[in-house]
Amino acid sequence: MRVGIVARVDDPLDLQMVAKVIRLLKGEEVLLEPGLAKKMGRKPGSVQELRKCNAIVTVGGDGTVLFAQRLAPEVPILGINLGRRGFLADVNPNDVRRALQGLRKGKLNIVTRSRLAAKVGEKELPEALNDIVISSGVLGKTASLEVSIDGREALDFRCDGIIIATPTGSTAYTHAAGGPVIDPRLESIVVTPICPVHPRQCSIVVPAESLVEVTPTRPGREALVIVDGVPAAKVLQGERVKVQRSRNCARFFEWEGFYRKIKERLL
């Protein structure tokens, strides 16, 4: 089995866990992400090699999982949680040995999670596992954003921004903005305003096949598109951001159940 490892490199505890993972994977072909390999003093695996792995083990938090997804989007991930919440990275440190044994023996189920694809004009943006945010391009200023669903005008917000999320992303920024938590088995897209001027404006949940289009309408004020926390594009007044479900799915090795994570991390 070829296993890639992706981890935070700025925390000694994370690096200690990486060393433990390497020991527990003795006998397997282990490749380290280039930045991690440099920190550990080991030979790095290239991005191309990581994309040919049978599995990727991440050490850190959900941000590390998102980073691994960008590096190798087709490879299933097993996330060891050394962060705060751990919805994507859900293996607790005490369970690492047992989880890696299950991985090596092929006993862990693989589950799929939907992703979002986005365009600004004809420019394709990176795919999102959690969410795509369209926010004001001017710090401290609101944005005026028009939202249409399948070509029909649906919402008109004056707000700090809009979050378009997958069910997986519904427990992240969308949840912090007051949006609903959605079981990842439900095929849907969630649209949530961030701090709207009219406080009764709320989230809407649309079918997964929907085309969501967002247009900045305020003259002279551009918007910023952020994909899974990474700035991706600027949008001028009148330009459209088109978001829909991607044909590609993310894959994860299943460890904890969704409702157990809800109970332990959100309630």
Automatic annotation (TrEMBL):
Active site: D62 (proton acceptor)
InterPro entries per UniProt: ATP-NAD_kinase_N (IPR017438), ATP-NAD_kinase_PpnK-typ_C (IPR017437), NAD/diacylglycerol_kinase_sf (IPR016064), NADK (IPR002504)
Keywords: ATP-binding, Cytoplasm, Kinase, NAD, NADP, Nucleotide-binding, Transferase
Any one Gene Ontology cellular component term annotated for this protein: cytoplasm
Binding site for NAD(+): D62, G63, N130, D131, K141, R158, D160
EC number per UniProt: 2.7.1.23
Catalytic activity: NAD(+) + ATP = ADP + NADP(+) + H(+)
Highest taxon in the source lineage: Archaea
Localization annotation: Cytoplasm
Cofactor: a divalent metal cation
GO MF: ATP binding; metal ion binding; NAD+ kinase activity
Pfam families: NAD_kinase, NAD_kinase_C
Top enzyme class: transferase
Entries under Gene3D superfamilies matching the protein: Probable inorganic polyphosphate/atp-NAD kinase, domain 1, Probable inorganic polyphosphate/atp-NAD kinase, domain 2
A single BP term in Gene Ontology: NAD+ metabolic process
Family: Belongs to the NAD kinase family.
Function: Involved in the regulation of the intracellular balance of NAD and NADP, and is a key enzyme in the biosynthesis of NADP. Catalyzes specifically the phosphorylation on 2'-hydroxyl of the adenosine moiety of NAD to yield NADP.
HAMAP family with a match to the protein in the record: NAD_kinase
Protein name per Swiss-Prot or TrEMBL: NAD kinase
Organism field: Hadarchaeum yellowstonense
Source lineage: Archaea, Methanobacteriati, Candidatus Hadarchaeota, Candidatus Hadarchaeia, Candidatus Hadarchaeales
